[in-house]
Amino acid sequence: MVLQAIKYKRGQLEVLDQLRLPHAEVYETVRSSEDAWHAIKEMRTRGAPAIAIVAALALAAELENLSAANKLSDKAEEVAAFILEKLSYLVTSRPTAVNLADAVTKLSKVVENALSEAGNGEAMKDAYIQAAEKMLVDDVSDNEAIGKYGAEWILKNGIVQGNSEVSVLTHCNTGSLATAGYGTALGVIRSLNAQGKLRRAFCTETRPYNQGSRLTAFELVHDKIPATLITDSMASALLYNRGSEERIAAIVVGADRVAANGDTANKIGTYALAISARHHGVKFLIAAPRTTIDLQTKSGKDIVIEERPGWEVTRIKGPRFDGAELDPSIVENVSIAANGIDIWNPSFDVTPAELIDAIITEVGVVEKDESGAFNMASVFEK
Ligand SMILES: CSC[C@@H](O)[C@@H](O)C(=O)COP(=O)(O)O
């Protein structure tokens, strides 16, 4: 069965509660923009592309249900104002991943353009819903293209082992759970595996929220992809070349915002991986759809980094263990730090473009030009 973070049919949206994974697979119904805002903020749903799509579809479901209950205004202008207000609210849920802001900008334009054509509230609602639903469909096909381009690039430029297979390291969760399906960096791993070219995927635990051990490991096991979990602190030891032992062909990660110069904000710990990759002569790749590229942000210095609550660092979540059996229905937050210690919990870091070898998008791979710079605008010319 295909793993789905988002289940949608017109008027009905459900998201897989990622706080309860991997111990329980529970879907939560999202009925309104307010429900979506909380699900995103509290990270029950997460991942840069997924939060944009959940926000867009939550409002679509809300509009459809208001219409079914005869509570939608019949004036196009009033429905447009309602949609624009909800979009401005939804964008405040998480600041770093630009996909959410990008979706809000695009959907606001759809609504503004529809004002001249939509004769009534119902037509305005339909214009919005069609655009939101298209985002869900496009994300999956974009990810499949990213997977194909990324796999090709790694097989050509990465460290390929004797039997023409590659091992790849990834960070955080960029798979079906972080997107509408297939995944970005994890899509590259899926594509390598489908071609019989993946020797092994390694995934980091991704402290403090553990997207790697809870979510990526869950996806890799679910899809029967050969994989090994390491703690974040083991990555450099893995990259260190010990002769005949495991060689990592490349590190491939996702992104939450790629600035115009290629500087990339991604899950905390990405920057350390990029430094280690450069030191060990291992290629370092970003895999992200064009919705993650923000030409308005000139460099990484301008990216706002979300800081999350300290308890995400001091506590770890897991099912109750009575010494014999796990009870997945009772999830506890266990303290793993000394009470009273101050905490810094930035959710993302910025990897300078200098440390990135290539950026994989759905329209192809962006590599540096002769001057050593990425021309990110080029992906919008295709
Ligand atoms: C494909 S999403 C980009 C990821 O690499 C990653 O940073 C991410 O999933 C976002 O983090 P999260 O804080 O879990 O929402």
UniProtKB/TrEMBL annotation:
Entry keyword set: Amino-acid biosynthesis, Cytoplasm, Initiation factor, Isomerase, Methionine biosynthesis, Nucleus, Protein biosynthesis
Entry superkingdom: Eukaryota
Localization recorded for this chain is:
Cytoplasm; Nucleus
- List the catalytic residues: 256 (proton donor)
Q: Does the keyword Transport apply?
A: no
**GO BP annotation list:** L-methionine salvage from methylthioadenosine
Give the record's family classification.
Answer: Belongs to the eIF-2B alpha/beta/delta subunits family. MtnA subfamily.
Recorded hits in PANTHER family, A to Z, give: METHYLTHIORIBOSE-1-PHOSPHATE ISOMERASE
Q: What is this protein called?
A: Methylthioribose-1-phosphate isomerase
Give the originating organism: Patellaria atrata CBS 101060
